[in-house]
Amino acid sequence: MKLYADEDGRHEVLSLGLLVVSALARVEVPSALWRKHRAGEITLGVAATLVASFEENYLGSGNNDPRFVSIEVSNAILASAARLTATARLRSFDAVQLASAEGARLADPSCDTFACFDGSLREAAATMGFALYPG
């Protein structure tokens, strides 16, 4: 969300390159942007523009590669996320994002940094041994 909404931490996230996300981001980010519109925080036009920008970043377009590497939601990730809802007291989508990061790190140990601004999610990621961004 920090890439699209004018929120604290936006400038830090804009400086990052390729990001690994759960495939659930495909629904989660547009949902959050449309929620901002319904709450009167952004206009319909701004919401539509931001959703289109996210979709372009997620899928890529023309000469632009995707900005995200999407981790598919497998049964193993769902099982890990279900455990995290109990052990780390995370909400469902937060648990899936963290379980996806764990899956990415298992596949590629260099995926060891977790970008997040939510306190409980940051704490859970740190407990799992992730470096945190922003530090």
Give a verbal description of the structure.
This protein is mainly alpha-helical. The chain folds into two domains: 1-70, no CATH class; 72-135, no CATH class. 54% of the residues lie in helices and 10% in strands. The strands form two sheets. Strands 1-2 form a two-stranded parallel sheet. Helix 6 links the parallel strand 3 (113-115) and strand 4. Helix 4 (75-87) packs across helix 5 (92-107). The radius of gyration is 15 Å and the shape is globular. The two termini are 18 Å apart.
Question: What's a quick, concise take on this entry?
Answer:
This protein has 135 residues and is mainly alpha-helical. The chain folds into two domains: 1-70, no CATH class; 72-135, no CATH class.
Q: Which percent band covers the strand fraction?
A: 5-15%
What does the radius of gyration come to? 15 Å
Q: Mean of the pLDDT scores?
A: 93
Strands of the widest sheet, in order across it, are 1-2
The poorly predicted ranges are none
| Topology pattern, helix = H, strand = E | HEHHEHHEHE
Shape: globular
Question: How many discrete structural domains?
Answer: 2
| CA(first)-CA(last) distance | 18 Å
**Tally of alpha and pi helices:** 6
Structural class of the helix and strand makeup?
mainly alpha
Helical coverage, percent range: 40-55%
What profile does the largest beta sheet have?
Answer: 2 strands, parallel
Work out the number of β strands: 4
Keywords:
135 residues, globular, two-stranded parallel ribbon, mainly alpha, 10% strand, single chain, 6 helices
